[in-house]
Amino acid sequence: MTPQDPAFLERLKGIVGPAHVLTEPADLAPFLAEERGRYQGAATVAVRPGSTEEVAAVVAACAEAQVPVVPQGGNTGLVGGAVSEAGEVVLALGRLNRIRALDPAAHTLTAEAGCILADLQGAAEDAGLLFPLSLGAEGSCQIGGNLASNAGGLNVLRYGTARDLCLGLEVVLADGRIWHGLSGLTKDNTGYALKHLFIGAEGTLGIITAAVLKLFPRPTESATALLAVPDLTAALDLLGRARARSGDSVSAFEVMNGFSLEVAVRHLPGARAPLEEPTPWAVLVELATSRPDAPLRPVLETLLEEAFEAGLVSDGVIAESLDQRAALWNLREGIPEAQKPEGGSIKHDVSLPLAAIPEFVAAADAAVDALVPGIRPCTFGHLGDGNLHYNLSQPAGADKDAFLARWEEISARVHDLVVERGGSISAEHGIGQLKVAELERLKPALDMDLMHRLKKALDPDRVLNPGKVVR
């Protein structure tokens, strides 16, 4: 059966209502676009269920008809994980947008998969608490997608990834059954931790419809600085000193190479150079605490004095206001957008052991320049947790299409260097379809065998998001 079969469409309309079964090209267009423009969705049907029960009924109908389902949240993914093929149905979860419960005493929030991340942050803030998951797309990404891709973001150093922030899940399985795992328990050793099968699985093993999330005391004070450092070795030294000096109050420790900072200043509206002179590397460090008796500004100032004396920092600026803090963060968060006017960009989301990062960057810079002389590394990321966005801008004046045509060749070289140093080819963006071949090439055979066994056990008919993660 095809998604366009009249009887099938009528069944879907009977489940979610005719208004929420989309077949017109103009209505489908938002669900077929992809953030980076590398892929184009091809589904001819998108379904917008409004409850977990409707999700389950739609999936059951698709399973019975052998029509594959592509779950989609805010559609902000960067690896093609929510892109549909012809003959598939897009299952858009944006109508599942209710906060079911917020328990200040237990520090938990129960939310449906379609809730916008920024809305959950706001709900926690209204309760005097913090939901710390934070990333550039937080105004449009949805928590179900964040969990399905195990999103990282800016606060992983202090609070962990999306996996670490989840206590329980509600999941629709490939046959339409609902797994009710919405436990808010911190301790539960009754067998396998089933929730972890679905977090990071990108909708290939089950469709997340709701989650119990951890909340934290809201920071009452923060201190933020942008610092010029000579190299990544100095940056890592500075990280260790910051954690020790602040009592491990470091909530973020971001790094930017000189080119990434340069393009941010050049292309972001209203951006201004925060440092007097260009720098090989810059670090954005933020300390935060919920303790009212632990002022952080003096701690940061003392740290910087020591860093200057040790030759780790040559220049720096401490944010004197919330506006200045926002301006510094805008430089860091705006790099991906600022890179676009520089032409084609080949992007990598990798993680490495901290000690291996300086040598990896040196080796990778040399390797990619040998492949494409004049290539411009735009390296930035979450140094505190070992995650680098090793993006490569085309040489100035080069042909964009010719440069992007070498994506696989260049990425293979970069990924080889990552794996040789004990790193991962996907730190926080997932595998989707972009990295399936690289995963098969580089992942140990036993790991791949276990992943295929899980897929076969939970989705034997390959109804859920086929072609993503494993194929």
UniProtKB/TrEMBL annotation:
UniProt keyword terms in alphabetical order: FAD, Flavoprotein
InterPro entries according to UniProt: FAD-bd_oxidored_4_C, FAD-bd_PCMH, FAD-bd_PCMH-like_sf, FAD-bd_PCMH_sub1, FAD-bd_PCMH_sub2, FAD-linked_Oxase-like_C, FAD-oxidored/transferase_4, Oxid_FAD_bind_N
Domain FAD-binding PCMH-type intervals: 39-218
Keyword Flavoprotein: yes
Cofactor names: FAD
GO terms, molecular function: catalytic activity; FAD binding
One Pfam family hit: FAD_binding_4
GO biological process: respiratory electron transport chain
Domain of life, source organism: Bacteria
Family, as annotated: Belongs to the FAD-binding oxidoreductase/transferase type 4 family.
Record-given protein name: D-lactate dehydrogenase (Cytochrome)
Organism: Roseospirillum parvum
Species classification: Bacteria, Pseudomonadati, Pseudomonadota, Alphaproteobacteria, Rhodospirillales
